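User: Run a structure prediction on this.
Assistant: Running it now.
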Amino acid sequence: MRLSHVVYIISLVICITGVNVTERELDWQSMVFIIPDPNGNQSGRKCAQLSSNFCYHGLLVESNQRDYRWDSRAHEVFRILAWRSFKSFNWFSLQDSELGSCCESQSSLYLKQGRDRGMSPMEYFAKSTDFSLSREKRLNYVSVRFDQWCGNIISAIGFGPGPFRYHAEDSRVTEGRHHIFPIPRQAAQFTNYTEPSYARVKQSDEN
């Protein structure tokens, strides 16, 4: 994963969360990213084996887009689309049988979140890989686990249209407390980035 992609994700968080959109009920969709966490849940631990930045889970879609069901061949078409570019987006499978590869996990997600919602393989793939900015894309999903030493640890975040949704992974998570991202394996520090003005992670030389 190139540093430019990491910088893009950080700027995406800053830009999207700062956008003020109307409060009308939008069709909820979310592009979800798993945060690598060696001490976290199963997804976080597996992601930490593959990337120190993030693992793309995929696009979650709540509502049917149209009343149409694509046949079984759509599954194979999506596998081809995903195989060609999954590494570019850190869209790794987190299944034990194909950890870090493709495409059973990704195509299964298409069946549930795409085909069953009436979307073609191309349509779902295009939406899943559309990282452009828009006024309706904002932080709309956070999944949080509890740590006895650090409190609320963010394990996944998602961006897209629709209302904000907060997922507590167990009963000890408290929304009113501070939330932090997992501490990476290597020491990291934030430095000011002059143009454009946002913070980026700079890995230190310390182990």
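Residues 1-25, 186-207 have pLDDT under 50 and may be disordered.
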